[in-house]
Amino acid sequence: MLQDNEIERENVKVKFEEALEKASFGIFHYFLILISGVLMVSLFYELMSVNFSLPVAECDLNITSKSQYGLVSGSWFAGVILTSHMWGLLSDLYGRRRILTVTPIVAFLTSVLSSFSINFWMLAIFRFFNGICVASAGAVVFAYLGEFLTIRHRSRSIMIASTIFSLLSVLLPLIAFLVINQTWKFELPIINFIYKPWRLFVLICGIPNLICGIAVYFLPESPKFVFSKGDIKQTIEILTKVYKINTRKSDFNITHIEPDDDYQQTSNKSGLFRMMLQNTSQILKNYSLSFWLISIIQFGTFYVGHGMLLFFPDILHEVSQFDGNENLQLCDIVKSVIEHKNHQLANATTRVCVDQLDNSAYIYVMILQACYTFGFIIISLSVNFIGRLSIFIFLFFTTGVCGTLIFYMKNAMFATYLYLWMLVSGVASNLMNTVTYDSFPTHLRSMAISTTMLFGRLGGLAGGNVASFLLEDNCNWTFSVGGLLLIICGALIFFIPVINKRNVN
């Protein structure tokens, strides 16, 4: 009788979320969260590799204006923007794991090639292809991680992965200092080429992609994706593997999962372009309010947190050269440096090449990343209790006000602190991805994340290029525009339907 009851219990049908809960939360998820954090930081490393390198590579790459900074950075964002939608669709059709295995390795190869650039156009081309590859991680990693997690672990786990991202980001200024400020040179006289420390730094920043591509190869496909294809058997096999790793037991007793709204939603692969239009149409028709609000907010967040970040090391280096002039505004210093460079070019005088960044540039970027780390830790601990809305309100309004106040600061160093806190608004981007996750079903989720992130990258592209022109012609508007955008994002956050949803453990 007992044996019959046991057989009956083992053959009971459960819902997917219950099966995921049965697989438990443990070692497998910790490793997955770690790899997801490294995947996130790989995008940041690739972006910042250029931000740190350009000030000391101006002579090597024949850079003569701030607008060329924007072109190099913009090419990377262009690669991301043009392919984010495609990567989201491909992962929704063919799986998350395939994308996250191949593209990071190719991204590493483009970083190697970038390190051998001989002018800024060549660097821009290689960064464009690098952007195409890393766009896949930005589009897929949140869906891949989230689909291994139950609703009560999802937001917190994504924010823990974001904390890992920020902890590793703190190391980047230290790596930059240890590598870029070296004085060695490796000459190749046959091709008249000199390999300098900044080139090695660009290559090093691609290594996280290589590590992630290899690591994901050994991980299973997303069980939620496999289930949405209609393959219940493989779904159970994946969950059994996860359960065995987490518990070190082999008694996973679920034999069937009940179909739900996501079941067999990604089984149709008839025509890539047709599916792209069909899925996009569903998003715009059924989830238009959430989609447009999230997209606009991501645009504003990336405009400041990524686009304006491009000039942070360079501006800090310039401020350090005017140490002691407390009455100068931040924009007075920027304008003075630009005029000095233009005077050198106009009079054909010998150009002074910068081979090393001032130490303060590394220190303040490290402080910025420490703020990111602290922010992610606080959000991870509090998001389930105080809710995402309260966090967004605090972030957007405080950072936005800081941006608008920079214009009024008579002390350049104090204005730098406001600039630093303004950039902390980038913390909101990853938390916003948890909102996107909750707003869309499985068969549209990856595309929704990738498309809203596309608008974010577009904001980064706009921020980098608009700031590059405003810094030269109307510096104060550079920060005022960014601050106003963040305040607008803070106002729009109230209208997202799922913003008050809490995943309380």
TrEMBL record:
Keyword presence, Protein transport: no
Record-linked Gene3D superfamilies: MFS general substrate transporter like domains
Transmembrane segments: 27-48, 68-87, 99-122, 128-146, 158-180, 200-219, 291-312, 361-382, 389-408, 414-433, 454-471, 477-499
Topology versus the membrane: Multi-pass membrane protein
Pfam families reported for this sequence: MFS_1 (PF07690)
Record key words, sorted: Membrane, Transmembrane, Transmembrane helix, Transport
InterPro entries noted in UniProt: MFS, MFS_dom, MFS_trans_sf
Name of the molecule in the record: Major facilitator superfamily (MFS) profile domain-containing protein
Organism ancestry: Eukaryota, Metazoa, Ecdysozoa, Arthropoda, Hexapoda
